[in-house]
Each structure stands twice: as structure tokens, then as C-alpha cells.
Write a structure and sequence with these properties.
This protein is 41% helix and 14% strand. The chain is an alpha/beta fold. It has one domain (7-153): Response regulator (Rossmann fold, 3-Layer(aba) Sandwich). The radius of gyration is 16 Å and the shape is globular.
Length: 160
């Protein structure tokens, strides 16, 4: 992954967040991961509001790793909010959750998730997932341009 690419992890369970962070570090991608602990913080981060207003320290991510089962604003609500925001409609959202419940999988895809992964329990399995994840999302998959960069590429027109 490129040095300027960042991933936002929205995870309320501190043990899971630590496991994921360690797997990213072991895979050599620790510097790209930013973490928030609930859905409201995820939305604030993506909006660039409050303590997340400084985009140098809190850069806009190219991807969100989203837990579904968070207190308050849950992952489904965050996903729905993202897909309703014109500037974020193409943001890659990978659900990373402990739920293997098929209605949750279906609902996440219905709301616009790009992928749905069930969190492994063991560190070795998490590391393997993150390593395969990196290969897929950076070497195999083609990512869309952001709506803002797409607009910058369009020629200006006049209505004179």
C-alpha cells in the first residue's frame, strides 16, 4: 500500500482493536491504520469534525474497516451514512465483525458494503487475513477514484 493511504478501523472492543493493530504492524502496515472506538467517532472522523478536523493528523482514509456491533451508532448506521454522503459514496467499506449471522451479511451488502469478513479469534489467523487482505486490496483490486478527484478531472464548462 502507498504511504499516503490510510485505513480507518471502527472497533469498540479494545481487545479486538489491539489484535487487528498488531496484525497490521506485523504485516508492515501499522502506520496506515487509524482507529476509532465507536460509530459516532467514525462519522466525526470521516466528516473531519471536532478533534478530527486536522487532516494532516487524521487523513481521509481510502478504506474503512467497520465493526457492526458497536454501542450507540452501530456499523450498519455508519455504513448507511457513508453511502448517503456524496463525497464518500465510493469509499471502500469492509465489514470486519464477529457476526457470522446471514441476515447481517445480507443487510451489510444491501447497505453498500464492499466486503464482509468475520474476525478470526487467533492472532495467526488474523495476521494471515490481513496479509491476504493487503494483496487483494492493493495489488489485485482496482479502486474507484473519489468523487472529488473525479470532479477535478472534468473540464470546466461555461454557460455563456
Amino acid at each position: 500500500m502507498q504511504a499516503n493511504q490510510h485505513i480507518l478501523l471502527a472497533e469498540d472492543d479494545s481487545n479486538d482493536a489491539l489484535l487487528i493493530q498488531r496484525a497490521f504492524e506485523k504485516a508492515g502496515m501499522g502506520r496506515m491504520l487509524r482507529t476509532v472506538s465507536d460509530g459516532e467517532q467514525a462519522i466525526d472522523y470521516l466528516r473531519g469534525h471536532g478533534k478530527y478536523a486536522d487532516r494532516e493528523h487524521f487523513p481521509t482514509p481510502f478504506m474503512v474497516l467497520l465493526d457492526l456491533k458497536m454501542p450507540g451508532t452501530d456499523g450498519f448506521e455508519v455504513l448507511q451514512w457513508i453511502r448517503n454522503e456524496p463525497a464518500l459514496k465510493r469509499l471502500l467499506v469492509v465489514v470486519l465483525t464477529s457476526s457470522n449471522f446471514q441476515p447481517d451479511v445480507d443487510r451489510a451488502y444491501d447497505l453498500g458494503a464492499n466486503s464482509y469478513l468475520v474476525k478470526p479469534v487467533r492472532f495467526e489467523e488474523m495476521l494471515s487475513m490481513i496479509q491476504r487482505f493487503e494483496v487483494y486490496w492493493t495489488e489485485i483490486n482496482r479502486t474507484p477514484s473519489t468523487p472529488a478527484s473525479e470532479a477535478a478531472l472534468r473540464p470546466a464548462t461555461s454557460l455563456n
